[in-house]
TrEMBL record:
<feature type="coiled-coil region">
    <location>
        <begin position="53"/>
        <end position="84"/>
    </location>
</feature>
<feature type="signal peptide">
    <location>
        <begin position="1"/>
        <end position="20"/>
    </location>
</feature>
<protein>
    <submittedName>
        <fullName>Uncharacterized protein</fullName>
    </submittedName>
</protein>
<keyword id="KW-0175">Coiled coil</keyword>
<feature type="coiled-coil region">
    <location>
        <begin position="256"/>
        <end position="283"/>
    </location>
</feature>
<keyword id="KW-0732">Signal</keyword>
Length: 357
């Protein structure tokens, strides 16, 4: 029995010694931090004041509960922030992707549809304008040709009228040649040469007047029969000249009518070209407006992409900073919670009256 009691006393003494050593180690660990030193100081003051141990235990346990609640709130808030961050990142990345798609699709439409369409319309207008220029060139040339033809007509009619007058003069002379003198004969022969001078050599009436000159040059005009033949020939010639005047006048009138009709056709053609240009210009204006709209939309979406990219970068940087803050706070709360639990174990020890800070 004594042996058993001795063993029990030895065990109690050994346990007390171990507890004393553990308490000393915990106290040393607590003194390594400001927060731990503050707790030890609180324990020392409470011991010196002789306050109830349970009251100090309750205070430290309440502190531990507060730390656990703050750590739990920190974890909850950070999880909420993480969810918000992830959601915002997904949204911004989608916005960036949508903006890139809009920019690429718009540029593709501009490059493959609208720009070629505008170029085609511009080329078409240039082609029609070239047709208009050719039309006006034909118009001006037609006027110049008609003017020249009219001048030639007037010149030919003047020649024919002069020839008619010369024939009339020759006929008048023949009426006086009943017993002609040499001077009268020469005057008549000169009048025939005057007629010849009025008629171009290329005229179909030139051979006729040459024959008359040849006939008259060998006559002394004493034979009335010969005179009658010459008169008939001159009248026939005069009639041919008048017929030529009438034919050329009719041809000139027809040429003028054809000319005016041709000019009217050219004017109608020019007006049609202008209508075509107006229609193409309407299409070109609409195409340019569409290009302006799509260019503005493309630039706006590209600006949106840059804005979303900047917002995403800012969000990632902000979240990284908040993550560092969260990690530091969590580590601090965890450290303080461990220190508080060590302090609680000190308070719950058998004797902490000798604790010195």
């Amino acid at each position: 029995m004594k042996t058993i009691l001795l063993i029990a006393l030895i065990a109690v003494a050994f346990t007390a010694r171990v507890q004393e050593r553990n308490l000393a180690k915990i106290t040393t660990d607590l003194q390594k931090s400001t927060y731990g030193s503050a707790l030890l100081h609180l324990v020392e003051l409470h011991s010196m004041a002789g306050g109830p141990v349970q009251e100090l235990i309750d205070a430290i346990e309440e502190l531990i509960n507060d730390l656990e609640e703050e750590l739990e709130e920190l974890e909850f808030n950070f999880q909420v922030r993480t969810n918000e961050h992830n959601s915002l990142v997904v949204s911004l990345e989608q916005d960036i992707q949508d903006a890139v798609i809009d920019v690429n699709n718009t540029q593709d439409t501009l490059d493959n549809l609208l720009f070629p369409r505008r170029e085609q319309l511009q080329v078409r207008i240039e082609q029609i304008q070239e047709n208009q220029e050719a039309n006006r060139k034909n118009y001006d040339e037609a006027i110049l040709v008609r003017e020249q033809e009219h001048e030639d007509f007037e010149f030919q009619i003047a020649e024919l009228n002069d020839a008619t007058a010369a024939v009339d003069d020759a006929l008048a002379l023949l009426e006086t040649l009943t017993n002609p003198s040499l001077l009268q004969v020469r005057r008549f022969q000169n009048s025939l040469k005057n007629i010849e001078a009025k008629i171009k050599s290329r005229s179909k009436m030139a051979p006729m007047i040459k024959a008359l000159i040849s006939l008259a040059s060998n006559q002394n005009f004493s034979d009335q029969g010969i005179i009658g033949q010459i008169v008939d020939a001159l009248n026939e010639f005069r009639n041919a000249v008048v017929d030529s005047i009438n034919a050329q006048t009719a041809a000139e009138a027809q040429a003028q009518a054809d000319h005016e009709e041709y000019l009217e056709q050219l004017d109608d053609e020019y007006a049609e070209f202008q209508r075509q240009i107006n229609r193409v210009n309407v299409d070109l204006t609409a195409t340019n407006e569409k290009i302006d709209q799509m260019t503005e939309f493309r630039d706006q979406r590209d600006a949106d992409r840059k804005q979303y990219t900047a917002e995403l970068e800012l969000e990632n940087n902000t979240y990284a900073e908040e993550t560092d803050t969260y990690t530091n706070l969590k580590n601090e709360f965890t450290r303080e919670l461990g220190i508080s639990e060590q302090a609680l174990s000190v308070v719950k020890s058998a004797d902490f009256s000798n604790i010195k800070v």
